[in-house]
Amino acid sequence: LLERSKLENVVTRREDCRVEYCKDSDACPLDKGAPACPVASVDGRLMLDPYWLGGSAHHARRTSLRLCVLLAKDPVLPGLKDLEPRDAARMLADGSLPGHPGLGPSLLNPHLRGLFDAGRVDQIRARHEGLFALCRTVLLNTSVGSPEAQARLLLDALSRA
């Protein structure tokens, strides 16, 4: 699937690897014939066509939302916090999630930074607010607790959504 996927900013050559702990190791996926190294591709993106996973019978083009999760990294916030749709949309549009300072109005996507004027950002914010109004929206603090505890918080939030 990786070979047929569309890749962006993904390390495909050993010379481009910037990960210190695996440069001298024999465990590099690129040395073993892999087309790309996900560990070294910190800023990489991968586009996978859902039809490749089994055709139209094995994936859904649309679904009903039950829970939207925004990730934050702030040692002061609680592990999980409910958000109002307006607040969640504002955080995304302003690029102001806790623990991510200075991202600016980019919808938290570095590829979109500087592409939108104020009117376009307002339109996108309104669209996101409508999306968040359809489901429960929470802010998960990834700097509090273990990954297992965070998974339990998400499962609990999903069961109450």
- Strands side by side in the biggest sheet: 3-5-4
Per DSSP, the total helix count is 4
Silhouette:
globular
Helix % is: 25-40%
Mean pLDDT across the residues is 78
Account of the 3D structure:
The chain is α+β, with helices and mostly antiparallel strands and 161 residues long. 27% of the residues lie in helices and 14% in strands. The strands form 2 sheets. A 3-stranded mixed β-sheet has the order 3-5-4. A two-stranded antiparallel sheet has the order 1-2.
What's the topology here?
Layout: E1 6-8, H1 20-23, E2 45-47, E3 67-72, E4 80-83, H2 85-94, H3 118-133, E5 136-141, H4 147-159
Parallel strand pairs: 3-5
Antiparallel strand pairs: 1-2, 4-5
Helix pairs in contact: 2-3
List keywords for this structure.
161 residues; alpha+beta; three-stranded mixed sheet; two-stranded antiparallel ribbon; 4 helices
Write a brief caption for the model.
27% of the residues lie in helices and 14% in strands. It is of the alpha+beta class and 161 residues long. The strands form 2 sheets. A 3-stranded mixed beta sheet has the order 3-5-4. A two-stranded antiparallel ribbon has the order 1-2.
